[in-house]
Amino acid sequence: MTDIERINLICADFESFLRGNYFAADYACCQESLESLRTRYWYESLKQRFSLSGPSQMERCLEPDAVTWNEDGRKKHSSNKWGRYRDGGRLRQTTLAKVEKNAPGSMRIFNHPLWDVLDFENKEVMEGEAFLQLLSAELQVVLFKRKPIGINSYVERVPVNRFLLRKLELRADLEVLACLTWLLREAAAKKCSNAKEIGDSLHNVLLMMALELHALRVALPLLQHFIGRVLPLGLPRYHQIAITPIQYLELAGALNKLVFNIKGQSKVLQWESRVRNMYRLLSGDFGLDVPLAMSLPTEPDRKLSWIPLKVIKQFKSFAWSRNYGWKSVFREE
Q1: Among 75, 106, 137, residue at a domain's last position
Q2: Distance (Å, rounded) from C-alpha 231 to C-alpha 247?
Q3: Residues 202 and 225 both lie in one domain
């Protein structure tokens, strides 16, 4: 459950972070290996899930056999591993298994398919459709349809069209991030015409999730992985990404605040309701200002020595529309 005060607190925390890390925010704070990132995501998810204060308390609650006590109740020994996990240190499978007993589902977070599909050195993940079958059962119902053959049956993928992408956006979560990333990599490899549409849906889901990712302390480096490797796969020729992880979070903050400005909207919302309202805002159900302001920013590809005049005019028109949308959004906030 979330209310506008929690949204404001997350935004205030982000602004405080920027004040303390202004010069590093676009560089070191955004650069992190996937291995470190997945460990920190696992750690922060557990910390948030059980409302724990830090490494010591998490070790006591989630891996109690790693702590020994004196007869008078004082701590005798601690492994101090959990401080390293907080910083993205190596996580052993034995620890994962122990924690899974006390926190069911935590192993899935660490071994989530998202980390594999974000690794562009991993070519096997794109072979066949086995990756999609690693996603949640609920998502597979969306991605596949049953085809009966007498008393037998088989499943086949549904086409990747606006109808499917809408369903995915309305389910915005880690499973959907992994799914859209795989679909975009597939479309780019096959040079499919729907790569841009998939990229736009992925952008929308990142906007919806970015603030919650910041609450887990992983937003900036995770967004950088998407900006650097994934989202460019959906761009038309002559375009390059023109947004930073910090700007993503600023957009996400504005989007989440707008959700609570919708007339007649409840003051406290479940995640599914927030996603539904954010989708409606980004789809233009309440006007075109939000989709114009929050569409994925691009600029002319600087690596090219020549760009057609027609494309330059499109960039100028996009910039004008984006500025118009922002002025309207700020009035609504």
Answers
A1: 106
A2: 15
A3: yes
Asked, for residue 111, whether it belongs to a domain, the answer is: no
| 209 vs 278: CA distance, rounded Å | 10
pLDDT score, position 2: 79
Residue 153 lies in a domain: yes
Same domain, 229 and 157: yes
pLDDT in tens, 27-78: 456 789 999 999 999 999 999 999 998 888 888 888 888 766 555 555 545 6
The Cα 174–Cα 185 span in angstroms is 17
Q: Give me the half-sphere count of Cα atoms (radius 13 Å) on the Cβ side of residue 11.
A: 16
How far apart, in whole angstroms, are the C-alpha atoms of residue 122 and residue 25? Answer: 28
Rounded to 5, what percent of the chain is helix, strand, coil? 60, 10, 30
Q: Output the pLDDT for position 295.
A: 94
Domain limits for position 137: 2-31+118-332
Per-chain mean pLDDT for the chain: 90
- Could you identify the residue written with the tokens 């114009």? 292
Residue 54 sits in the same domain as residue 145: no
The answer to whether 25 and 220 are in contact (CB under 8 A) is yes
- 3-state SS assignment for residue 148: strand
100 shares its domain with 136: no
pLDDT tens for 196-205 read 999 999 999 9
Q: How far apart are CA 262 and CA 111, in angstroms?
A: 38
Q: Give pTM, 2 decimals.
A: 0.93
In the chain, how many domains are there? 2
Q: Do both 48 and 152 map to the same domain? A: no
Q: How confident is the model at residue 252 (pLDDT cuts 50, 70, 90)?
A: very high
Question: Cα–Cα distance between 114 and 20 in angstroms, integer?
Answer: 30
Closest CA to 195 of 232, 241, 158: 232
User: Of 184, 100, 169, nearest to 139 (Cα)?
Assistant: 169
Q: Which two tokens stand for residue 267?
A: 């003051």
